[in-house]
Specification:
Blueprint lengths: L2 H16 L9 H4 L2 H4 L17 E4 L2 E4 L12 E2 L5 E2 L2 H10 L17 E6 L6 E8 L5 E3 L7 H10 L6 E3 L16 E6 L11 E6 L8 E4 L11 E3 L5 E3 L26 E3 L5 E3 L19 H6 L3 H9 L4 H7 L10 E5 L3 H10 L22 E2 L8 E6 L2 E10 L2 E4 L12 E5 L12 E10 L13 E5 L30 E6 L13 E8 L15 E5 L15 E5 L5 E9 L10 E5 L4 H8 L1 H4 L5
Antiparallel strand pairs: 1-2, 3-4, 5-6, 6-7, 6-11, 8-11, 9-10, 10-16, 12-13, 14-15, 17-25, 18-19, 18-21, 19-20, 20-23, 21-22, 22-23, 24-25, 24-27, 25-26, 26-29, 27-28, 28-29
The protein binds 4-(aminomethyl)benzoic acid.
Length: about 625
């Protein structure tokens, strides 16, 4: 290469790297995680998103709750089909179980103040202006275009019997014939996007000059579709323009265009779990990212410029278009506003707040820790309240993790069901030569080893120990222990996240260790490079430090690799399992990937003990 060309090339290189690339600059292939798409995630994939409060998460899928599983508190509702329900949750659970019920009109209650939706002035039945009619009145109304977005349009199309939602929200329709349109008023509608009927959305009536026009929609019909090489294929079979994937907007209708992202375009933010959420969802009081970062550090962000106004409008449930007009931009729309229906979104949030909460992963004392595990530091009482020691006869043979109730998680290679009688679980222990006063000693009722544990390959190296209750007690009381949370999704933590290991295993130069030690390690991705043919990505997790200075070792087995989420809640992400030697950077420690065993664990210990969300 000639020198002049080289310098030009270097200059170009410098420019492109000095500017941080925004997601919209990224080519499609870099924005969408193709491997993830194979999993066919949708809004019902609870590894990626939270379920609705009338659903629960079973084996990675949100399934409908039975109505009796809804909280009983609430006000009765009358659905559009004339059926009445004790609460909104009951209605949604019933509709979730029987989606067709929505379209039958066989109930007897009067849906006061509710709307019937239809399309008018379209060339076909799939399109038109959105016309709403109050159930008990003849007056027809239209929806203002500036309150109309993908969320509302999807709900309207589903409501009209197009399960794949909307194709287009632009559409132009000839208002013809002699029908009279009240041109001084239109309806504003605001949906969250999870509704199945427009009647669940919030409606306000506004006087308007209609300068922005009326809302129209083209609903999606499969047979009218032509996929091209430039379209993104949604899990529900719909095709959308590729540039609409990973923009925070649910264009697919099943959210499948937003769940496998490496970056987001437009006004959207990326959750650590690879999900794009609209920027309006940040700091709105409801957690949307399963990893919680959309609602963290909100106080700090509030101080930032531009945040305040935008968010205050949102709190008051004012549609975005109106918020703009209030500032004197967009259209003039300041005359009287009449709230017609408040929408069911607050009710949805209220039901969510009534769901049972788990208490795990939060230490009771918060004293600062001073710093065996190879290269680790000694722990203080209360630093690792989920850490237990497993004693077989006279020796402490392994570590374990308290996960609540009477249950300890450990490695399968640490225990044998037939030896349950000879095990003891020591809780709140620091130094086993000089036991501290907080120490608790429990005997063991039974040991459950994973059915598919393979002692040769260390696959499924996971076991549960059920402790005996003390006589006369109904629960296992461990006053100085706190359970670690069990991760319900494999997307809660990622490679390079910093986590903590702890145990009484061998130290540097194979030294014996008597007091609990801990150290920080990073989760390591692509670990097959270190252990070709021996590493099983789905079931195992590598962790370590670049120089190998911190590592688990003999005796740490069965003990915890814990990670803290953004809200400082601790999860047991791994169980010390195996590794080639100790403290060698080319051979990181290998841990059982606990998230992969969430269903196995909850099957044995009971869902309510480990299910923090989606219960
Ligand atoms: C063991 O023998 C063992 N460096 C545990 C962890 C590691 C190696 C060996 C990881 O129990």
């Amino acid at each position: 290469m000639k020198l002049a060309h080289l310098s030009l090339f270097l200059l170009a290189l410098h420019l492109s790297s000095s500017r941080s690339p925004s997601a919209s600059d990224l080519p499609q292939e870099e924005l969408v995680d193709q491997k993830c798409l194979l999993q066919k995630y949708t809004h019902r994939s609870c590894n990626k998103v939270f379920c609705q409060p009338w659903q629960r998460c079973i084996e990675g899928t949100c399934i409908c709750k039975l109505p009796y599983q809804c909280p009983r508190a609430g006000t009765p509702v009358c659905a559009m089909n004339g059926r009445s329900y004790p609460t909104y949750c009951h209605q949604k659970s019933f509709e979730c179980l029987h989606p067709e019920i929505k379209f039958s009109h066989n109930g007897t209650c009067a849906a006061e103040g509710k709307f019937n939706v239809s399309l008018i002035y379209g060339r076909t039945k799939t399109e038109g202006l959105v016309q709403v009619k109050l159930v008990d009145q003849d007056e027809r109304m239209f929806i203002c275009k500036n309150s109309w977005s993908m969320a509302e349009a999807n709900v309207a199309c589903v409501d009209l019997g197009f399960p794949l939602g909307v194709r287009d929200i632009q559409g132009s329709f000839n208002i013809s014939g002699n029908l009279h349109i009240n041109d001084t008023e239109c309806l504003h509608v605001h949906c969250r996007g999870v509704e199945t009927s427009l009647a669940e959305c919030a409606f306000t009536k506004r006087r308007t000059e209609l300068s922005n026009g009326l809302a129209g929609v083209v609903c999606y019909k499969q047979d009218a579709d032509f996929p091209t090489s430039l379209s993104f294929q949604c899990v529900n079979g719909k095709h959308i323009p590729q540039e609409k994937a990973c923009n925070g907007v649910n264009d697919c209708g099943d959210q499948s265009d937003e769940l496998c992202c490496k970056g987001c375009r437009g006004n959207a933010s990326l959750c650590k779990s690879g999900v794009c959420i609209p920027d309006q969802y940040k700091c709105n009081g409801e957690v949307d990212c399963i990893t919680g970062e959309d609602e963290s550090r909100c106080e700090e962000r509030k101080k930032g410029k531009g945040y305040k106004k935008e968010n205050e409008d949102r709190q008051q449930n004012i549609p975005k278009g109106l918020a703009r007009s209030a500032q004197g931009e967009a259209e003039i729309e300041t005359e009287e506003t009449e709230m017609l229906t408040p929408g069911m979104d607050n009710e949805r949030k209220r039901i969510k707040s009534l769901l049972p909460k788990l208490s795990c992963g939060v230490k009771r004392n918060t004293h600062t820790r001073r710093k065996r595990v190879i290269g680790g530091k000694p722990a203080n009482v209360g630093d690792y309240p989920w850490q237990v020691a497993i004693k077989d006869g006279q020796r402490i043979t392994c570590g374990g993790i308290y996960i609540g109730g009477c249950w300890i998680l450990t490695a399968a290679h640490c225990v044998r069901p037939s030896r349950a009688h000879s095990y003891q679980v020591w809780t709140a222990l620091l130094d086993w030569l000089k036991p501290n006063s907080q120490l608790g000693i429990q005997t063991v009722k039974r040991v459950i080893v994973h059915e598919k544990y393979n002692g040769a390959t260390f696959q499924n190296d996971i076991a549960l120990i059920e402790m005996k209750m003390h006589t006369g007690k109904k629960e296992c009381e461990l006053p100085n222990s706190v359970p670690a949370c069990v991760p319900w999704s494999p997307y809660l933590f990622q490679p390079n996240d910093r986590c903590i290991i702890s145990g009484w295993g061998r130290g540097k130069d194979n030294q014996k260790v008597y007091s609990l030690r801990w150290g920080e390690v990073d989760l390591i991705g692509n670990c097959s490079q270190f252990y070709p043919d021996r590493y099983y990505e789905k079931e195992m997790q590598c962790a370590g430090t670049r120089d190998g200075s911190i590592d688990a070792c003999k005796g740490d087995s069965g003990g915890p690799l814990v990670c803290e989420d953004i809200n400082n809640v601790t999860y047991v992400w791994g169980i010390v399992s195996w590794g080639e030697n100790c403290g060698k950077p080319e051979f990181p420690g290998v841990y059982t990937r606990v998230a992969n065993y969430f269903d196995w664990i909850s099957y044995h210990v009971g869902r309510s003990l480990v299910s923090q969300h989606n219960v």
